Amino acid sequence: MNTPEGKVKSDVKKLLHERGIWFYMPVQTGYGVGGIPDFICCWKGLFIGIECKAPGRESTTTPAQRRCLTEVREHGGRAVVVSSAVALGLWLDLIKSMETEDAGSS
Q1: Helix, strand, coil percent values for the chain (each to nearest 5)
Q2: Which of 104, 105, 106, 60 is nearest to 82 (CA)?
Q3: What's the DSSP call for residue 27?
Q4: Global confidence as pTM
Q5: Domain ranges of the chain
Q6: Helices (H) and strands (E) in the chain, counts
Q7: CA separation for the pair 14, 8 (Å, rounded)
Q8: DSSP label at residue 1
């Protein structure tokens, strides 16, 4: 049986495949850095961290997860917490439109 968060991860994985976005899903084993996002992605030169939560549980990130997402942002990457692939798709569309606007103003 798939958990609600597991369903979100499965749907996000499918969306990333459909959009041709490279990603890696780190396996949390207790070794290494805690709080690593569920998906580490590279898309059009952007480093992206995606943390998945069950619907209604978006605010339940741990201190380690919040720290890691903040560090990604501080180093010029993008980071997001999502509870659906639809929300992620909208966020990616927004990022894409922002990048297009930035390129047009150069």
Answers
A1: 45, 20, 35
A2: 60
A3: -
A4: 0.88
A5: 4-21+36-104
A6: 3, 4
A7: 10
A8: -
Residue pair 53/81 in contact (Cβ under 8 Å)? The answer is: yes
CATH code linked to domain 4-21+36-104: 3.40.1350.10
Element (H, E) at 102: helix 85-104
Q: Over the stretch 35-62, which tens digit does the pLDDT of each residue have?
A: 999 999 999 999 999 999 999 998 999 9
Name the residue type at position 48. I
Question: What are 1-42's pLDDT values in tens digits?
Answer: 589 999 999 999 999 999 999 999 998 776 767 899 999 999
C-alpha span between 26 and 32 (Å, rounded): 10
The owner of tokens 């609600």 is 4
Q: Give the integer Cα–Cα distance in Å for 50 and 23.
A: 10
Type of residue at 70? T
Strand ranges inside 5-59, DSSP E? 22-24, 39-43, 46-52
pLDDT bin (cut points 50, 70, 90) of residue 106 is low
